[in-house]
Design a protein that fits this description.
356 residues, 8-stranded parallel beta sheet, two-stranded antiparallel sheet
């Protein structure tokens, strides 16, 4: 197992910037032109990758409207699975054009397959890596088939118990493919902050020793930026041109300006996290002089003893460090010292050994 892996020649993992995915999903709203526009907008907003989904209604479910296939709660309440996927899917005949457009603008192209036929189709397209959706986490035969292509895999884990995640990881590793990253995710649309449980990111990293990210269905950029502070290596966010273009995903998707702000905030968090460092930073250098040090605060004659009345620890920092205060008290001055003079070793009888 490795704490990093490579996507399209780019290292993803600790020590590298977070890899940011713009999820198009259904936000093309049935328009190829809008899908192409989304690719350009994602690149301009700072995404590293544009992601689509490869399925048809028939590869996802069956056209049946009995009670088992009705959506009873949530964003799509009242719809049926087959009709939902009819509205949301990305036509397969578009996907080669979308791949080419992504290459043209310089953004990675990724898709989520949902069955073997979609994997085979994406193999023909020459995709470089795969995404596995949370709902497919339990489909171990599908995971094994995707992993058998020996390409990097990003797998979401929403709703997964620890046992199910372990089984999914084992299924992938069992093929000999070790190119895996896991994504913390909440499969609610939109996800509530109190149900994000972002601390799980750290736990997943500790348990599996591989890159971990966040597939974020919450509103705004707060969760994404927080996830990066917790060590997330990948951020995925649904992306639309405008939420006024209604489709199954628009209500919880980010518009380009919002997405760009999220990318900015993520990059600022990465700068702020930095590395473990102690001492004066470059920016602090000019202020270091305002730390405390030992100063003469009343005129002292040669041979006079140093007392709390004639020396004090004050700002600025041109004198001896305050840690020498007790050692100086009671010793005598080697020369006359005026009020406002920073105290130095050479001014003090018996402290010459401290001189460098």
């Amino acid at each position: 197992m490795s704490s990093t892996f490579s996507i399209q020649g780019r290292t993803v993992g600790d020590g590298s910037p977070a890899y940011i995915i713009a999820e198009m999903s259904a936000n093309h709203a049935g328009s190829m032109e809008r899908a192409l526009e989304l690719i350009h907008a994602a690149k301009e907003a700072g995404a590293d990758c544009i992601k689509i989904q490869t399925y048809t209604p028939d590869t996802m479910t069956i056209d049946c409207h009995n009670q088992y296939f009705q959506i009873e709660k949530g964003t799509w309440e009242g719809d049926h699975l087959y009709s939902l996927y009819q509205k949301a899917y990305t036509p397969w005949e578009w996907q080669g054009r979308l791949r080419d457009e992504a290459a043209k603008v310089g953004i990675d192209f990724l898709s989520t397959p949902f069955d073997r036929t979609s994997v085979d189709f994406l193999e023909e397209l020459g995709v470089g890596f795969y995404k596995i959706a949370s709902f497919e986490l339990v489909d171990l035969p599908l995971l094994e088939y995707i992993a058998s292509k020996n390409k990097p895999i990003i797998m979401s884990t929403a709703m997964g118990t620890l046992e199910e995640i372990n089984e999914a990881v084992a299924a992938i590793y069992g093929t000999g493919n070790r190119q895996l990253a896991l994504m913390k995710c909440s499969s609610a649309y939109p996800a509530k902050s109190e149900e994000m449980n972002l601390c799980t990111i750290r736990d997943l990293k500790a348990r599996f020793g591989i890159p971990v990210g966040l597939s974020d269905h919450s509103m705004g950029f707060f969760s994404a930026a927080t996830a990066v502070a917790l060590g997330a290596n990948i951020i995925e966010k649904h992306f639309c041109i405008s939420r006024t273009v209604k489709n199954p995903d628009s209500a919880f998707s980010m518009e380009p300006e919002e997405f760009g702000e999220m990318v900015h905030q993520v990059r600022e968090v990465e700068k702020a996290m930095g590395t473990v460092y102690y001492g004066v930073s470059k920016q602090e250098e000019s202020n270091a002089v305002f730390r405390r040090s030992l100063f003469v605060v009343r005129d002292i004659a040669a041979g006079e003893a140093f007392t709390p009345e004639n020396i004090r620890s004050i700002r600025p920092a041109y004198g001896l460090k305050p840690k020498y205060y007790k050692e100086v008290l009671g010793r005598t001055a080697k020369r006359a010292l005026e009020r406002g003079t920073p105290l130095a070793f050479e001014d003090i009888e018996g402290m010459e050994a401290h001189e460098s």
